[in-house]
Every structure is written in structure tokens, then in C-alpha cells.
Specification:
The chain has eleven helices and six strands. It is an alpha+beta fold. The chain has three domains: about 120 residues, no CATH class; about 45 residues; about 55 residues, Homeodomain-like (Arc Repressor Mutant, subunit A). The protein is globular.
């Protein structure tokens, strides 16, 4: 797998080995670990999928001879300390890469900074990547590949494409018919398969993605609550406040006040 097109100031990709700590080494576009490997490493290998490839996370695959976008080599004891014991013991070796992890991998491969700042940035994002991977696994948000059952691999890829469409185009007025046509599935197969794979409906996935954006805007901007709702895809402030309250347990105003106080 070829690395992503990260670039330095000259426009060239910068492959890099970073010793995050004695317990963790990050390989960005590298196929050799060198001497920076922890003593008892567990590898998290992230590939964005060059060409027609599919973005995946592989757990502790045989290492060497293949360049992946990002490989994190983490000491098993350290990973357990972070809550990753279940990840180490997983019965599955490969997972579809969700949007949260894809975004971090892309940022690791394409930092817009000079040499010294780039290494520091990559170090911090590597820590974020391992922590987010553990969190998403614990939340049941990682979908294993090869667990399709009666569903074909092609249909599974179409369902993953539907989820990606929601993750990336949530601000648009997406309809079930639009998503079905774009992904090459009929409505019934999309509706049934999406719930089976992601344990939620299309509407619930859209709502969650919009509410997560609303939470981000509440905590990082001073936009009025009504504007936050509008920017997050809600045309009615009352419906936005109700949906936000059901999802997060507090009104948007209260959530912002607590976040600012913290």
C-alpha cells in the first residue's frame, strides 16, 4: 500500500519514524521499524486505501515489506494501561477504518508545518490516534471486515460507502434515496444492512453526526445557539434543542456553560 501524499515545504511526502516514548514508536509512511521498537510491541496498522483500496485498521499483522500510511508500535503493557486489553485479545484482525480515525491518519500524513513543528505535531496526533482507537473499540464502533455473514463483500463495501457519505456530507439534505443511488443499493437492502452493520438507522447516524458537529461548535465558537443549530443542519431551533437534549442530556445553552466553566 502506498503512503498518503503528505508533503513538506517542497511538496514531497516526508516519511518519518518517531519515538513517541520508550513504549511507543510511530511509523509514518515507513516500512522499517529500525531500533525504535518497544520491547514487546503490538502494532496498529492504518491504511487509507490507495486507488480503489479500502481504508482499514489491522491488528498486529506480520510486519515488514509493506508501506502503510501509519503504523503504531505500542508496548503491550502500555496499551493495556490505556484500556486496550480487549483490543489485544480481539478475535478479529482487520476492521473498516471509521471517519474519526481516517481524519487523524490523514492529518498525520499531511501536516501543514515545517520540519521541527511537523515532528511535534505527528507525535501528538500519534497519541491521539492510539487513544481514539481504543475508545472506538470499547464503544463497539469498529466494524470488523469479513463478518458479513450472508451479506456479500461488495454489499458490505457499499454500506461502508453509505456511512462515509453520511460522515462527510452530513451538512447536506441527504435522503435515503440519494444515499441508496450513490452507493448502488436498493432502499430495503441499504436500510436493513446499515442497521445490521452499524446498529443504528440512516436517520440516527445522520442525527448523531450533526449533533457532534453542534457540540463542537458550542464548545469552540461563540455562535448563538440558534446559529449553531442552523450550521448543524437544523432549520428549527426548538427541534435542535430537543434533539441535543435527548442525545447529550442537557440543553445546548447548559452544555456550553458547563464546557466553558470546565
Amino acid at each position: 500500500m502506498t503512503p498518503s501524499n503528505g508533503a513538506d515545504d517542497t511538496g514531497e511526502f516526508v516519511a518519518e519514524r518517531i519515538q513517541v516514548s520508550p513504549e511507543m514508536t510511530a511509523l509514518i509512511g515507513c516500512d522499517q521499524a529500525g531500533e525504535l521498537v518497544p520491547q514487546h510491541p503490538f502494532s496498529l496498522s492504518f491504511g487509507l486505501g490507495a486507488g480503489d483500496g479500502h481504508p482499514t485498521l489491522r491488528l498486529n499483522p506480520p510486519f515488514g515489506g509493506e508501506t502503510l500510511d501509519v503504523v503504531l508500535l505500542v508496548d503491550r503493557t502500555a496499551l493495556t494501561r490505556l484500556g486496550g486489553q480487549a483490543l489485544i485479545q480481539s478475535n478479529h484482525a482487520c476492521f473498516h477504518l471509521p471517519c474519526e480515525l481516517r481524519a487523524i491518519v490523514r492529518m498525520l500524513c499531511d501536516p501543514r508545518a515545517g520540519d521541527e513543528a511537523r515532528t511535534t505535531y505527528r507525535l501528538a496526533k500519534s497519541i491521539e490516534l492510539v487513544c481514539e482507537t481504543v475508545r472506538l473499540f470499547e464503544d463497539g464502533a469498529l466494524v470488523a471486515t469479513g463478518c458479513e455473514g450472508a451479506r456479500s463483500e461488495a454489499d458490505s463495501r457499499r454500506l461502508i460507502a453509505a456511512r462515509r457519505m453520511i460522515d462527510e456530507r452530513w451538512s447536506e439534505k441527504l435522503t435515503l434515496d440519494q444515499i441508496a443511488r450513490a452507493c448502488g443499493l436498493n432502499r430495503a437492502k441499504l436500510t436493513r444492512g446499515f442497521r445490521e452493520m452499524f446498529n443504528c438507522s440512516i436517520a440516527e447516524a445522520l442525527a448523531e453526526r450533526r449533533l457532534l458537529e453542534a457540540r463542537r461548535l458550542l464548545l469552540t465558537t461563540d455562535l448563538p445557539v440558534s446559529s449553531v443549530g442552523y450550521e448543524s443542519g437544523y432549520l428549527n431551533n426548538a427541534s435542535f434543542s430537543r434533539a441535543f437534549g435527548r442525545h447529550f442530556g442537557r440543553s445546548p445553552s447548559d452544555y456550553r456553560a458547563i464546557g466553558v466553566a470546565a
